[in-house]
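Please, structure for the following, as tokens.
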Amino acid sequence: MLTIKQSVATIAVIAFLSFSAKAQELWSLQQCIEYALDNNIQLKQQELNVKITENQLIRAKHGVYPNLNASANHNYSFGRSTNYITNQKERSDIQSSSMSISTQVTLFNGFQLTNSKRQEALNLQASLSDVEGLKNNISLNIAAAYLQILFSEEIVESSRMQLELSTMQVERTRMLVDAGSLPEGNLMEMEAQRASDELQLVNAQNQLDLAYLTLTQLLDIRDTENFAVQKPQIESLGQEPIANQTQNIFDQAQLTLPQIQGARIRVQSAEKGVQIAKGAQSPRLSLGANYGTGAQHLLRSNPLLSEDPFLDQIKDNANTGIGLNLSIPIFNGSQVRTSISNARINLENTRLSLENEKNYLFKEIQQAQADAMAAFKKYIATEKNLNALQEAFRYTEQRFSLGLANSLDYTTSKTRLAKVQAELVSAKYEYIFKVKILDFYKGIPLSI
């Protein structure tokens, strides 16, 4: 029978564990990636740059339309001034109003407006590619941190099992020592082995905590206590990667990855920049029109003069104009020639940037292919080694229990087994990550 205090304590513990289980939501890899893409500040800044580029495109589109400007003035004049009625200079104090409206449209300027509009459209596409490229980098970083947590969790679990095994062996050795079957030195060595396994567990837990810290920092999550990742079921590693696929994957990746697309678009934008610069060599033809009028009113009335009404003056003093303006560049301090030269240099630079992006991508795929092949071979070899060491350890453990093997042989066999177990876990997650990178270059979304 439980006492009242024990019952209350038991209920409190159960309630606390239930609350903790509810509060600690398990995050899948896809949830982590989606959260990062929704909340990453750097990504939001890049999206704001896209909006700036959109505004620049709107401005370039509106640049082909006629402009329209209006102005108005109201002045007070004291002394001699022109009388709008008599058109004579008179000494009088007057107030005058004038207003005008004008418009101008460019008819031809070497297609600079048209090319500017097309260039801004290309710049917008390049900015969108930058956003997608940043999303890909964020997703890869999240996937790497996520897999590091899964790896660290398996190391913690393996270290915990090793500690439990050491604890059981300490108790068994103590019984044999008490029975006089083994010397007391064996017990001391087993207790030292247990202490070493405790240290390994602490180190593994610290690595797991650091892995969680890395992921939460990438996600910008401050409530790290209630954060935990979902452990997927990984049945098998699948087949060995196909060798010599680098060129095929590269041919596919360069058609879809945003960093290559963005670099290509920037080459096209630079080509438009050269055309814009060359357009400054052409004559410029524009059409303009204006309308203006004004009216006056004496501050001091003059009985000898009768002033026309304000609206009549506005009507009578109106003037309109329309005309064509042709500007032919002849010499302007080599500004046009310098602009064309700089535009061509920028074009060559963007072409080199495109080639550099392609070379970098090819090397990345080549390295990922080699890493995946090496990781798979390492996993297979480590798995065979582990199977052999498990049999050897089982044999050594039986001999140790019968007193046929000393504690040094036992701890040596156990340490080798634990080391290979950790190496197998490392090889498994290394292979998974490298394969996911290859899938990513093939256009397959990241998932586990």
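The longest helix spans residues 112-178. The two ends are 48 Å apart (CA to CA).
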